[in-house]
Write a structure and sequence with these properties.
heterodimer; A: about 350 residues; mainly alpha; 3 domains; two-stranded antiparallel ribbon; about 0% strand; B: about 675 residues; mainly beta; Jelly Rolls; 4 domains; 6-stranded antiparallel β-sheet; 42 strands
């Protein structure tokens, strides 16, 4: 097995990385040799990572992508210095080497973790590519960046296997769910900011609301996972149950209400109707759950307290809606009616 | 006048003759270990029964059996295994049951024109014993009694006897009268009939005694290791001789077999032995269990399911062996040699079609083969020559424990893993390694059904706030033992309790919780003589303390004592080339199971004469101090700081390298 890896690593055929630099003049206006040179390190990285993880497992795996980041950075320097700025292929060459360098740099932290490091790596790389698009305006960077972010979301939100067979985490709240789902959520929101207009259209799709929406869904999922994990029985796996435990049921209701409130505030502040509507929908569901499910289990005194809490949340929501959103509408109408 | 030959000439002639004879003996191939010389008085087709010694010395399929004549020529032969008569079974054409006040009368139409000599009843009832009278009729008018008082029964533990036998005959109608005076009638739903064999080959099987090599009393089960005296015997049945007056037991027969890189016990046959006496009748018994297969090893395992009954006293066990015939054409009278004992030769392929013989038609010769003797030309190959001791080196820094293994003599070894090794190794023994001079010695694991007991100390740990609860804290000698059963003795004469065995676990957040290990319903009545109670443990144990709990309701607490746990014996088989000590390493939670080529010759290792190896005191290795599991996101603060610094520097570098962002609005 090790021989296979050794051959794969040291075979001269695999030294694509230096090929275009040797024939720099001939390949100055080409893209594919440079792309091959930039990508040469990626498969070798995974081979070496597997080799080290199997033969010499250690706690310093983050140093490996750091080492692999150096060749594309050096290549980037050479391209910047040797390839004339007027060359039409230069932007593609920069995009490839910059993208691969960022790939390894963004992998330094995730690879230190045992769980979901590939997904987090995708999300960080996606965000980094969208940032790189600001410096190197190659459309492939934006497409790849957004694609990686969406893929990271799909892996965490639409892949039920992620949540299967995981025992209750070793630590409440500050656990792998927080760093995995949290990091991808942050990347999605950051990605939405990075593709703000005028960089917002990817294949005729307005990317920022899509990425922000995915981030919101992932954040909501994270809130629910953390609650489920917190209340999972010792020695069990992560289980979602919405009845049978009053504290857990109330935590869900309160968390949903708070999430809806934050969503509402964000929607009002950023003037996003979809966010406001989603917040009101979630708040309505929470109130229905509270009224028809949670309150049935409460004693008289607690029921009064719960009603008061519900009333406070509803009033805060309506106040915020009236105070800020109505004012915005009035201001808008004034501007429109002004001569 | 002729002169008599001189003494010198005669001596030379005699010497030549001796040399010729010696040369004849020297012609025997050297790769065969055993030789059985015999003399054929006259030329012709010979059929002789191979003695058990020959079968024992040869390979299981007689692949290494060879015949040589006096001149050293190989003689083709044919091995014949008498085929047992296969009885056919037919369902009854019609089956009617009528109930009378004290009997259930079954009238069935056989629908057969052949001889019938037995039938098997079908019933879903699971706890009954009844005598049956059997009658046969040709016209449903005149009935002839064929059998009286034959027992049929089924016990809750599964022991059952629903077969009835009677003299062979053509009976279109049969009538069975089941006596219901002692117990309620049972539902009888059908019957299948045994057609008697016609033109059957006379049974030539012989009974021989099997020595009881070992006897283990597991909870609820007796495990006998029978030494058949020879390997490769075709066993038709076994018979157990016991003086126990009344009993019924389920029997299982098993052999050890190589399966999935380990050695396990493979059940060959099951049956029921019984001796029952029904009211007013003589005792009826069946002490034999049919087997009908070849047993390749000398050992046969016999399991007797005792349930809650005491173990049976067993006087002896006998096995019924089917003969194996050797047929060959002796071209001339004289000496012949049968050779056996070559592990590597392939089976011979003789062209015997020209002989056109029917082995059944040839009488068995009175010739007998003497016991095998050592072939004088035999050159002994090394034991398990394919297995070398220069295995691959292994870095054992991750292993936590080791024990020196005492080797008494070189060759095949059997090492039983002790409690230390079982407790500290992975549950599937994946981390077991044998090393000699830092190199691995290949081994194969043998999982047996033998159980050994571990005495445990139990203290009452009742809850003062809950008077109806009885709880015992049971302390074990080691943590993480692979225990499978808990047994204890009850002194309270009458009780019925639901008991639960559990262990207390602590998750990574420090929260304690109960993990159930076993539960059961224990009942003690005055008629119930056995005071032993057993719980089957279904989950692995992690700690060295378990708890047994039961609710007493409004009854006084149950008095339990003599707590014992049982664990299955696991051994490893390997070959040691020297008597120098080797080391057994274990205790590495991350070790993957080894993959040795030894499994290819595991059968030879099982068959080999193994020396018992022993383990010495446990030694802790430096790996003991190393933590097992790398936590997600672990690493020192310094490492994280360095990584953060590196990331910042690299990002700064890439920011500096890349050109400044162009004015917005030019991308689209």
């Amino acid at each position: 097995m090790n021989n296979f890896y050794e051959k794969a690593i040291y075979k001269p055929e695999n030294n694509f990385a230096i090929f275009p630099f040797v024939f720099l003049r001939q390949f100055a206006d080409k893209a594919i040799p440079w792309a091959a040179a930039a990508m040469a390190g990626v498969p070798q990285f995974f081979l070496i990572h597997r080799l080290i993880a199997a033969a010499h497992p250690n706690q310093f795996m983050g140093l490996l992508p750091m080492a692999f980041a150096i060749p594309p950075l050096l290549s980037l320097v050479i391209v910047l210095r040797k390839i004339p700025a007027i060359s039409p292929a230069r932007i593609t060459q920069l995009a490839w080497f910059g993208g691969v360098a960022l790939f390894f740099i963004t992998l330094i932290f995730p690879i230190q973790f045992d769980r979901q490091w590939i997904t987090i790596g995708w999300a960080l790389e996606g965000m980094a590519l969208l940032w790189l698009f600001h410096r190197v305006p190659h459309p492939g960077l934006r497409l790849a960046g957004a694609g990686l972010l969406v893929a990271a979301f799909v892996r965490l939100a639409l892949n039920p296997a992620v949540l299967e067979y995981h025992p209750r985490s070793a630590m409440a709240i500050l656990n792998w769910y927080l760093y995995a789902y949290g990091a991808v959520t942050v990347c999605l929101f950051a990605g939405a900011r990075l593709v703000a207009p005028p960089r917002n259209l990817i294949a005729q799709i307005n990317a920022p609301p899509v990425l922000a929406g995915l981030g919101t869904v992932l954040a909501f999922l994270l809130v629910n996972i953390e609650i489920a994990d917190f209340f999972s029985a010792p020695g069990s796996t992560l289980t979602f149950q919405f009845s049978g435990n009053f504290a857990r049921d109330m935590t869900y209701s309160i968390a949903w209400a708070v999430f809806a409130l934050i969503l509402l505030v964000a929607g009002i502040h950023r003037k996003i109707p979809t966010s406001r509507h989603a917040a009101l929908g979630l708040l309505s569901i929470t109130l229905l759950k509270l009224f028809f499910h949670d309150l049935a289990r409460l004693g008289q005194l607690y029921r009064i307290g719960a009603f008061i809490s519900v009333a406070v949340i509803a009033m805060l929501a309506s106040f915020a809606y009236q105070r800020f959103f109505a004012a915005t509408v009035q201001q808008k109408e004034k501007i429109e009616t002004a001569p | 006048m002729k002169r008599p030959p001189k003494f010198g000439v005669r001596w030379v002639c005699l010497s030549c003759l001796n040399c010729a004879l010696a040369t004849g003996a020297a012609m025997l191939p050297s790769a065969w270990q055993h030789e059985q010389p015999f003399t054929v008085p006259s030329a012709g087709l010979i059929k002789l029964s191979l003695p058990v010694e020959t079968l024992d010395a040869a390979r299981s399929g007689l692949e290494d059996l060879r015949l040589y004549d006096e001149a050293g020529n190989e003689a083709p032969y044919w091995v014949a295994h008498p085929v047992p008569v296969i009885r056919t079974r037919h369902p009854a054409k019609s089956f009617h049951v009528s109930l009378t006040p004290h009997t259930s009368v079954i009238t069935l139409e056989t629908g057969l024109t052949q001889d019938v000599d037995g039938l098997t009843l079908e019933s879903p009832a699971n706890n009954f014993i009844k005598p049956v009278r059997i009658e046969g009729s040709l016209d449903r008018e005149d009935w002839h009694t064929l059998g009286e008082g034959q027992p049929v029964f089924r016990q809750p533990d599964g022991a059952a006897q629903l077969h009835l036998s009677f003299p062979s005959g053509v009976w279109p109608w049969l009538r069975l009268t089941v006596d219901d005076r002692r117990s309620q009638p049972i539902p009888l739903t059908g019957a299948s009939l045994d057609v008697a064999a016609t033109a059957a080959e006379p049974e030539a099987a012989e009974w021989m005694q099997a020595a009881i090599a070992e006897r283990h009393e597991n909870p609820g089960e007796t495990r006998l290791t029978l030494n058949l005296g020879a390997a490769n015997l075709d066993i038709a049945a076994i018979k157990i001789e016991t003086d126990a007056p009344l009993f019924a037991r389920q029997i299982a027969l098993a052999v050890t077999q190589v399966s999935e890189d380990s050695i396990r016990e493979q059940i060959l046959a099951r049956g029921t032995i019984f001796r029952v006496a029904l009211e007013g009748g003589p005792a009826s018994e069946n002490l034999s269990v049919p087997l009908g297969s070849q047993v390749r090893s000398r050992q046969l395992l016999l399991f007797i399911n005792n349930g809650d009954s005491p173990p049976l006293p067993i006087k002896e066990v006998r096995v019924k062996r089917r003969p194996v015939y050797l047929l060959f054409l002796a071209r001339q009278a004289g000496s012949y040699h049968a050779l056996t004992g070559n592990r590597h030769c392939s089976a011979p392929s003789y062209d015997l079609s020209a002989l056109n013989i029917n082995p059944k038609s040839i009488p068995v010769s009175a010739l007998t083969l003497p016991p095998p003797v050592e072939n004088p030309n035999y050159q002994a190959p090394e034991v398990l020559p394919g297995i070398t001791d220069n295995g691959t080196p292994l870095d054992v820094s991750a292993w936590k424990f080791r024990k020196p293994v005492k080797i008494v003599r070189a060759g095949a070894q059997q090492l039983e893993l002790d409690l230390d090794a079982l407790a500290h190794a992975q549950s599937g023994l994946q981390d077991i390694r044998l090393l000699h001079d830092a190199r691995q010695i290949p081994y194969i694991v043998e999982h047996t059904s033998i159980t050994r007991s571990v005495q445990a100390s139990a203290t009452a740990a009742n809850d003062a706030k809950d008077a109806g609860l009885s709880r015992w804290t049971i302390q074990l000698p080691e943590a993480g033992l692979p225990l499978t059963q808990l047994a204890c003795t009850a002194r309270t004469p009458l009780f019925h309790r639901e008991v639960a065995l559990y262990q207390e676990m602590e998750d990574e957040r420090g929260t304690k919780y109960r993990q159930p290990l076993a539960q059961g319903s224990w009942m003690q009545t005055p008629e119930h003589t056995n005071r032993e109670f057993v719980l089957q443990i279904n989950s692995p144990l992690h700690g060295d303390r378990v708890f047994l709990e039961t609710r007493n309701g409004d009854n006084p607490p149950v008095d339990l004592q003599n707590f014992r746990f049982f664990y299955p014996v696991s051994s490893i088989l390997f070959k040691a080339s020297t008597e120098e000590p080797v080391f057994l390493y274990y205790g590495n939670a991350k070790a993957a199971p080894p993959q040795y080529d030894l499994s290819l010759v595991a059968g030879q290792l099982v068959m080999a004469d193994k020396a018992p190896a022993a383990l010495s005191a446990e030694e802790r290795l430096p790996g003991f101090a190393v933590r097992d599991n790398r936590q997600s996101g672990t690493g020192t603060v310094a490492l994280w700081s360095v990584l953060a610094l590196v990331v910042v520097v690299l990002l700064w570098l890439i920011t500096r390298l890349l050109p400044k962002p162009p004015p917005t609005g030019k991308h689209e």
